[in-house]
Amino acid sequence: MQAASLPARAGSLWVQQGWRIFRSQPVAFFAWTMFVSMILMLASVTPPIGPIVFVVLMPLVTFVSLAACREAVAGKRLQPALWLAPLRPPRIVKRLLGMGALYMLVCLLVGLLSFLPFMTEIADAVQSATTTNNLMPLFDAARTPMTIFGVLYVLLAGLFWYAPALVGWWDTPLWQSLFFSGIACWRNKWAFLVYGLVWGSIFIGIDLAATLLVAIGLPESIAASAQVPFNVIAGAVLYCSFYPSYVSVFEQPGGTDESNRTDVPPETPASS
To answer: What average pLDDT does the segment 22-43 reach?
Structure first.
């Protein structure tokens, strides 16, 4: 298995190609993202079980999203039954859930390694914030462990980024899929840097637009409601952009050049 090494501009091309995949069947991808968002909302209000279950399901959700993109690129209409088709092969659900359980455990370990050495300072800052109503000491105490957690989580995300696809489509053992995913992400670190900057700019831009609406006099509740569909669309395009990232690195050695783009649908959108 050979992972291609792409130029930094590939990161922005993944976003563009994700948009084209979304545009080919926008209703289906919008509905899928709404469904995932509802699960996330349900998980957020049912701690600690809800967040744990959601994290365990993440590799499965990622693989279903990738498979849907592959079907859309092939010109197939995304009917409800087609979304479950990738999970029918023997052991695939069990292996993806096992990957999710490992992901959850490693996330907890990373959190402990990041915050445990600073718990005394954080506890003192919490007590100070409670008595003085000043959150700055808490922010100061949390800055270092949050930075450590962010760095470690980026490394962790690289190990799991391509792993669902490698397990689902290549039948790669779990530990090998993590290794190959980590190597592929490292070889394309500049492309992922651009990819992250583009998505950060998109979501920040959506938030700034909502803030601007409030600033010109629109009620905050209406501005927040208006922001929701744009967040969902951006989330759907984000899911769709996972597929060209995978294809250009593992299945299309020619990369993401405009002349060799077989990982996105044609310009004319398919019927939704």
So the answer is: 96
- Compute how many other C-beta atoms are within 10 angstroms of the C-beta atom of residue 215: 10
What tokens were used for 262? 């077989």
In three-state form (DSSP H/G/I as H, E/B as E, the rest C), the secondary structure along the chain is CCCCCCCCCHHHHHHHHHHHHHHHCHHHHHHHHHHHHHHHHHHHCCCCHHHHHHHHHHHHHHHHHHHHHHHHHCCCCCCHHHHHHHHCCCCHHHHHHHHHHHHHHHHHHHHHHHHHHHHHHHHHHHHHHHHHCCCHHHHHHHHHHHHHHHHHHHHHHHHHHCHHHHHHHHCCCHHHHHHHHHHHHHHCHHHHHHHHHHHHHHHHHHHHHHHHHHHCCCCHHHHHHHHHHHHHHHHHHHHHHHHHHHHHHHHCCCCCCHHHCCCCCCCCCCCC
Mean pLDDT value of segment 137-151: 90
Summarize pLDDT for 147-206 with one digit per residue, the tens. Answer: 999 999 999 999 999 999 999 999 999 999 999 999 999 999 999 999 999 999 999 999
Chain segment 52-87, per-residue pLDDT in tens: 999 999 999 999 999 999 999 999 999 988 898 999
pLDDT exceeds 70 at position 124:
yes
7 with 191: CB under 8 angstroms? yes
